[in-house]
Amino acid sequence: LTMMNRERVSSVGARGKGPLIGAVDEGTSSARFTVYDEAGTLVFSHQVPVDCEYPQSGWVEQDPRKILDAVRQCIATVMQECFKMGYQKNDLKAIGITNQRETTIVWDRATGEPLSNAIVWLDSRTAGTVNRLIDKTPTNSKDFLQKLCGLPLNSYFSAVKLRWLLDNVDAIREESSAGRCLFGTVDTWLIWNLTGGPNGGVHVTDCTNASRTMLMNINTLKWDPELCKFFSIPMNILPDIRSSSEVYGVVRDGPAAGVPIAGCLGDQQSALVGQLCLKRGEAKNTYGTGCFLLYNTGTKPVLSRHGLLTTVAFKLGPSEPCYYALEGSVAIAGAAVQWLRDNLGIIKSSADVETLATQVTDTNGVYFVPAFSGLLAPYWRTDARGVLCGLSQASNAKHIARATLEAVCYQTREVLEAMNKDCGIPLSTLKVDGGMTCNNLLMQLQADLLGMDVARPKDAETTSFGAALAAGLAPGIDLYSVRTMQVQQNTMVFKPKISVDERDGRYEMWRKAVSRSFGWEGQPPKATVVPRGNWRMPLLAAGLGTAVVCAFLWRQRRNS
How far apart are CA 14 and CA 262, in angstroms? Predict the structure, then answer.
């Protein structure tokens, strides 16, 4: 598969006709469907936004029906455009699916109706459930199950979300007891519906998505009875686990009816495949709603001692070996930019953050820790919440915008340092992808704050391509071949420009800001005793801080 010079083709005359591979990419904020030709060239793509709902603080939900509708809309639009370009339906040889991971859906197997909204991976409502589960372990440790599933007990993962649903949603508890409901992550929900739903839909997942549930044994790649017993999850509601590259079933209706669904990967594993990080020691970092750094550790799982996750990277065929990865997961990356847009109103579009941030040369001492629902790797602190540190009367929207971009970079450095400790093989270049990488300032800041080259591919949306690769490699499809793959050409490499002393000094201030984010959720604040005679200074400081924030927000509202 030649990976050079992949680019969008928008007219019939630009390409000859031939076989196509499609990829569904259902993410946190949008769904898209993309088709590629036999050379890996992007032919056409269509994207539809998918909204999140926030019914309470820390809760993040989505309507599963809207997720499915968005995917179907994308497929219909792309197929219509392909028909206009002269392609036929039988030119589409297979479809791969990649998806937001951990997001948990339970539905009625007879009607196909969801029994609640999907609990999104970002959701932190299950903190109390996590604490109770930790308390029942013999060692009172969040890492008690790590040897079985590679993961710590945390609200991030599907088993905890499913346990919460069984405990708190009457319909799910009743349907589960009666054997009438099914569980799945987003990939399972899509495959089941696209292959027929209540009328013969295939209830499957792949091993990359299953490895994010805390219910799959990381060594056997099967649902583990001990893990299911620990979480009190009935095994009859779980999907079958398959490889990432095989035919699961065929689309039952719509413009893609009859096309095999032949690839499935969690979104971050799909980006790893799309970046062709198929050998041990290769890594990538994806910048999207969150930020995810995956390091291919080969065919044996490596258990982290520094706050990382052990996960399945890919298994490209039923008879192919399983590859594993260490992953550093950052919950809030692009979502912080959306917060600037939607909550503070200091930018009108996400793209505006680069323009605003480039109007200043530094943050003027401002540090932003966007721990909106806690911190993931390497801290795993559900009690953390977002903080802005270092504000002064000179602080303005430009400094906060730049601090938001720097926050993404600092979090990546924390994950990379933990990965170096676990693997012992420091990276010399960081491969990047995802929607945020079009921001040149962000990429330069990342190179500066890591002290290493950052390599951005021409097509930064490698997640979709990874799913297409998996489908094209599937037995019986055989459109692509691993043996003929070539390394994707990078169109731009960002090199560090600041000194080691400056880099490390700024990083130490970031770590100081992170420490300020701890302890805000789940426990009452401790009383602070102020020595007699010193009460004026704390009171003055508190009043000044409040005045600065209020004045800043008032000025932004007035200017908008």
Answer: 28
Distance CA 365, CA 527 (A): 28
Residues 197 and 110: beta-carbon distance below 8 Å: no
- Give the model confidence (pLDDT) of 193-246 as tens digits: 999 999 999 999 999 999 999 999 999 999 999 999 999 999 999 999 999 999
Question: Which of helix, strand or coil describes residue 258?
Answer: coil
Q: Convert the pLDDT of each residue in 3-49 to its tens digit.
A: 333 333 333 333 447 799 999 999 998 999 999 998 888 999 999 99
HEC letters along 359-414: CCCCCCCCEEECCECEECCCCCECCCCCEEECCCCCCCHHHHHHHHHHHHHHHHHH
Is the N-terminal amide bond of 531 cis, ω within 30° of 0?
A: no
* Dihedral (Cα; 211, 216, 219, 221), 10-degree rounding: -80
Q: pTM (2 decimals)?
A: 0.82
Cα distance between residue 5 and residue 135, in whole Å: 54
79 sits in which H/E element: helix 64-84
96: its two tokens: 């791969």
